[in-house]
Each structure stands twice: as structure tokens, then as C-alpha cells.
């Protein structure tokens, strides 16, 4: 069985949706004839507790094995210079350092992230030998996985795949993208180095066709589509439960370039007409302890929820909660809401695939006239609304049905064949087929 090394900063128990892509590959590659090992960090510890010096690096490596995959968790070598730079943010010296990083292909300019990247390469250089692995998968983000996969190939001739969860800044595909001078400089350096690092890659993959087209312009090579997905095993044994309240649920972050207008206005019409006492809208994980900066791709901050909060006590927001709790909440929802990205072609939003796996109807508002519309229509998994009154009319219909069907039994999700194409296992099979084709492995 051919051996695959997956480079992924994000991996459980790190509780972010980015961890699920690497976990999906780890869980299912072995089903398709490839033996995976994940190289990551020890997310059972705080970033501070992960640090060590070079002398103790080897003693702090942790190896975990199960019947599906191996995980190697490495420590982070602390570097005085990067600690110093971390205290200089906003100063002239910091801006000069950022420019130096860009010039030298260190595109993750946070000093802490640079430390992680240098520690990963230290491990690859010191502890991985030619022949240990048949292929490496470097998952972006961060950038350093792309760079380290390329450098490992140049040094030890191990073939590699580059797998992009995102573009370097998803706002670059936005219809209203107007970068300032700093952003244009950054775009230039990212394009330069992404092209360089992709040059010798056996396979390039990204999560949607419009994004693949954009990436192809940058790297001048063919790019395949491996979407995100849902883990069907997470839903095995779960039941769709009847709640005491009719609930619309959104999980995850809210972004500045999502459009909430039609959803808000439709809710107002519904609430005004019915004055429901057993109805709520929940936004799980919308409240964040930190908010990435302004601009189109920033998170909505707490004081920007005003338009939603004007709906009174019907709407609730929470901070991040453990994944298992999210799954339980999801199975008690009547509708799952995805605010689309109509001006950002190719943008799914990661949570929509978990919505698919739940078997609960999805409402996407407004239409993106793109990938989300195609996904929902192709899988018959939900509805898209362009006008507030259309959404209000649909909401009234399903709410009144729920009210009259008080004896509805709990049931298991029923997923059609089209939905199952978007499971993590199906998408991992696509990846394994691409890899085996490049390695000339017969099924």
C-alpha cells in the first residue's frame, strides 16, 4: 500500500471547520488503497505549551495510530527573533519585516505562524527520508504547507499534491474587489510563489470550479475540484428530532460580504403576520472573541448584528460551542440557513456540506446564481429565495405544517445518491483516484 504524508496545520482536536478536510482524507484514504499519515501539531496544548528548543524537539514528538491513519504531532521550536517581531506589530521595523517575508516567500507573516512553518520544515528535513512516503499532500492554508511540500520534493524527490481549501484571500474573486497598494503587492507575491510551488506538483485541487479557474490563471496548470463535504459517519445513528420550537439554524461565522437583506425582511413579514410564540432563529458560533479586520472578507462583529437583532427575542446568537453540541443542535432544527455570497463566484461556505449530511431542508437566501444554486437543485436538498415575500410564504407553510403535525416521530436522515457524492468519503475517493493515476497504481 502506497504511503501518503498529509501536511495540515488544522487537525482535531483543533475545533475549526478547516480541520475536517484533513480528517476526511485521513479517515478514508485507506479505503482506497493509500496509507495516510498526518503531520500536524499538538492541539491538546496551548500554543505556548507547544514550544520547545531544538535540543528537546525529538523527545516531544508524539505519534498516534488507529486502524485508519497515523498522526505525528510535532512541537514548535521557539525563536527569539520571531518573539521579538511579535511585539513590533504596527512599527516600521515590522512593516519592513513583512516586505522581507513577501520577497522570500514567507507568505504567512504572523510571527507565530512562521514558527509553525519553520518547525514543520525542520521535521521534514531531519526526520523524513527519501522512500518513507510515496507522495505528500500539502493543504493550504497556511501557505507554508505548499512551500514545504515543494522544498521536500526538491531536497528528497518525494512527489507532492497541493490541495487548496481556499484562494489566498477569497475576496479576490469578489465582483467589487478593489485592492489597495499593499494588497496588490501581496497578491503579486502570492501569485509568484504559488506558481513556483505548483510547478512540480503532480496534482492541484481546490474546492469549486470558479476557484479552480482562478487558480489556473495564477499557476498556469490544470486544477481539479475536490469540494469540501460531510462525514456520513457523524450522522449515523442520529435522528432528526422534534423540538418544542420551530427553529431556523445557522452554524459558524457570519461574513461582511454575505447578504442578509431578503432573509431579514422575509422574517419580519412572517413574524408580523403570525406572531409565533414557538419560533426562533439561532446563529451558533457567530459571536467570536476576535474579528479579522475590515473589508469584504471580514467577520461580522457583535455590533454589526443590529439588523438581525431588530427582530426581537426571536433571534439568538452564541459563541463557538463544541462540535458535538453543534451536531445535536443541527438535528433539532427545522430549517438550516445559508446566507449566500452572490458577488463572490464559487463560494460555498463550508457548513453547507454538513447541512446536506443532516437531511434537514436548507434555505439559501438570496440565490448566488452559481455553485450553491447548482448544489441544492442537483441534490434536491433545499430552496432558494430571491424575494422576502416568497421566503415568508414558504416559512408560513412549513411552520403551519409543523404546528399541525404534533405527533411527528423522530427519524433518521434520508440521503439520496446525489447528496452522497458530497460525502468526505466520496471526495476522498476522487483525490485517491487522482493520486493513483499519477503514481500509476492499478485499482
From TrEMBL:
Domain (Glycosyltransferase subfamily 4-like N-terminal) ranges: 106-230
Signal peptide range in chain numbering: none
Domain of life of the source: Bacteria
GO molecular function, one term: glycosyltransferase activity
Pfam family, one: Glyco_transf_4
SUPFAM superfamilies tied to this protein: UDP-Glycosyltransferase/glycogen phosphorylase
Family annotation (InterPro entries): Glyco_trans_4-like_N
Name this polypeptide is given: Glycosyltransferase subfamily 4-like N-terminal domain-containing protein
Lineage: Bacteria, Pseudomonadati, Bacteroidota, Flavobacteriia, Flavobacteriales
Amino acid at each position: 500500500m502506497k504511503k501518503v504524508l498529509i501536511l495540515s496545520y488544522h487537525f482535531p482536536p483543533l475545533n475549526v471547520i478547516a480541520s475536517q478536510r484533513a480528517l476526511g482524507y485521513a479517515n478514508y484514504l485507506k479505503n482506497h488503497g493509500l496509507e495516510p499519515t498526518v503531520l500536524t501539531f499538538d492541539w491538546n496544548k496551548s500554543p505556548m505549551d507547544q514550544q520547545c528548543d531544538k535540543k528537546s524537539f525529538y523527545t516531544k514528538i508524539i505519534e498516534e495510530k488507529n486502524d485508519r491513519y497515523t498522526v505525528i504531532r510535532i512541537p514548535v521550536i521557539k525563536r527569539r527573533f520571531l518573539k521579538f517581531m511579535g511585539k513590533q506589530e504596527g512599527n516600521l521595523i515590522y512593516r519592513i519585516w513583512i516586505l522581507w517575508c513577501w520577497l522570500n516567500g514567507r507568505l504567512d507573516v504572523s510571527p507565530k505562524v512562521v514558527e509553525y512553518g519553520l518547525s514543520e520544515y525542520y521535521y521534514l528535513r531531519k526526520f523524513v527520508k527519501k522512500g518513507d512516503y510515496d507522495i505528500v499532500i500539502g493543504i493550504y492554508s497556511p501557505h507554508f504547507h505548499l512551500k514545504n511540500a515543494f522544498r521536500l520534493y526538491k531536497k528528497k524527490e518525494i512527489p507532492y499534491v497541493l490541495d487548496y481549501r481556499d484562494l489566498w484571500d477569497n475576496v479576490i474573486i469578489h465582483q467589487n474587489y478593489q485592492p489597495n497598494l499593499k494588497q496588490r503587492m501581496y497578491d503579486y507575491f502570492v501569485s509568484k510563489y504559488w506558481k513556483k510551488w505548483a510547478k512540480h506538483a503532480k496534482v492541484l485541487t481546490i474546492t469549486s470550479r470558479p476557484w479552480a479557474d482562478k487558480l489556473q490563471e495564477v499557476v498556469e496548470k490544470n486544477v481539479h475540484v475536490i469540494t469540501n463535504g460531510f462525514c456520513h459517519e457523524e450522522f449515523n445513528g442520529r435522528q432528526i428530532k422534534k423540538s418544542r420550537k420551530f427553529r431556523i439554524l445557522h452554524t459558524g461565522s457570519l461574513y461582511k460580504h454575505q447578504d442578509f437583506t431578503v432573509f431579514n425582511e422575509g422574517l419580519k413579514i412572517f413574524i408580523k403576520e403570525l406572531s409565533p410564540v414557538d419560533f426562533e432563529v439561532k446563529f451558533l458560533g457567530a459571536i467570536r472573541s476576535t474579528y479579522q479586520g475590515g473589508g469584504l472578507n471580514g467577520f461580522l462583529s457583535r455590533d454589526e448584528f443590529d439588523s438581525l437583532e431588530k427582530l426581537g427575542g426571536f433571534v439568538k446568537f452564541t459563541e463557538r460551542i463544541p462540535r458535538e453540541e453543534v451536531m445535536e443542535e443541527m438535528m433539532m432544527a427545522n430549517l438550516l440557513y445559508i446566507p449566500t455570497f452572490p458577488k463572490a463566484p464559487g463560494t460555498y461556505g463550508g457548513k453547507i456540506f454538513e447541512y446536506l449530511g443532516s437531511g434537514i431542508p436548507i434555505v439559501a437566501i438570496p440565490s448566488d446564481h452559481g455553485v450553491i444554486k447548482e448544489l441544492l437543485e442537483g441534490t434536491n436538498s433545499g430552496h432558494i429565495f430571491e424575494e422576502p415575500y416568497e421566503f415568508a410564504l414558504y416559512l408560513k407553510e412549513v411552520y403551519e405544517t409543523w404546528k399541525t403535525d404534533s405527533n411527528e416521530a423522530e427519524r433518521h436522515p434520508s440521503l439520496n445518491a446525489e447528496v452522497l457524492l458530497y460525502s468526505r468519503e466520496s471526495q476522498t475517493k476522487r483525490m485517491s483516484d487522482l493520486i493513483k493515476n499519477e503514481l500509476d497504481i492499478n485499482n
